[in-house]
C-alpha cells in the first residue's frame, strides 16, 4: 500500500542564487540580495547559495573610491550575506537546482562578467556562463534583476535571443540588444517574462530610488519564478 505524503515530506523547490561579493560597488547589491533571499524563503523555496572563488578589487563604500592594491575573495565576501552557507559555483550544476536567481550590484558586472569595463564585448565568468546555459538547456526557470540581465544576454543572446529588461536606460538597453537579446522597457515595480526561455527579469536598483521600490519588483519576480516552477 502506497504511503501517504505528509506536508513535512514535500520536497521544496531548490533555487540557486549567484552572489558576486558583498556591497553594491564591488559585489552583490545587499538590499537586492536580502530581499531575494527573504522572498524565496517566504515562498517555501530551499535556497542554494553560490559564488565564484576568485579575487575582486575593493571599493571603499564610504567614499566610492577603489582601494589601490587591495583585493578580497568573492566567495568569502558573499558568505557574509548568507551567514556562511554558500558553495563555490564550480561545484554546482543544473541537476542540483530547480531554478536560478541572479541579484544585481556592480559585482554582477565586474566579477561575474566584465560588462562594466567592456560593455557588449564583455566575457562572462566561465562557471557562471556554464550554469546559466545548463539551466536554460534543462528548461528550468532563470531570474535576474538590476544589471544581471546584461550577463544573461551575453551568455544566451546568440543562441537563444532572450527577452530581458534592465529598466529604461537607453545606453544599457542598446548594449543588451547588441548582444543578441531583445530589451523590453519596464518600470521599477514590474518584471518581464520570456516564456520561451523561462527567463524573468526586473530593473530593481537600475531604477529604484528606495529599498521599497526595489523590493516590489523583486518580490513580484520571485512570485513569478515560483509560479513558473509550479506549472
Walk me through what this model shows:
- The protein is α/β, with parallel strands linked by helices.
- It has a single domain, classed as Rossmann fold.
- It is built from eight helices and eleven strands.
- A seven-stranded mixed sheet has the order 5-2-1-6-7-11-10, sandwiched between helices.
- It is globular, with a radius of gyration of 17 Å.
- Strand tally is 11
Q: Indicate the structural class.
A: alpha/beta
Count of discrete domains: 1
- For the record, the CATH class is Alpha Beta
- The oligomerization state is single chain
Major beta sheet, strand line-up: 5-2-1-6-7-11-10
**Which bin fits the share of residues in helices?**
25-40%
What is the makeup of the main sheet? 7 strands, mixed
**What is the terminal separation in angstroms?**
28 Å
- Under CATH, the homologous superfamily reads Class I glutamine amidotransferase (GATase) domain
Shape: globular
Poorly predicted ranges (pLDDT <50, ≥5 residues)?
Answer: 1-10
Query: What is the count of DSSP helices, taking H or I runs of 4+ residues?
Result: 8
Strand content: 15-25%
On the 0 to 100 scale, the average pLDDT is 95
Helix-strand blueprint:
Elements (H helix, E strand, L loop, with lengths): L13 E5 L11 H13 L3 E6 L3 E5 L6 E8 H8 L5 E2 L10 E4 L3 H5 L4 H4 L7 H12 L4 E4 L2 H13 L2 E2 L5 H9 L3 E2 L8 E3 L4 E4 L8 H20 L1
Parallel strand pairs: 1-2, 1-6, 2-5, 6-7, 7-11, 8-9
Antiparallel strand pairs: 3-4, 10-11
Helix pairs in contact: 1-8, 6-7
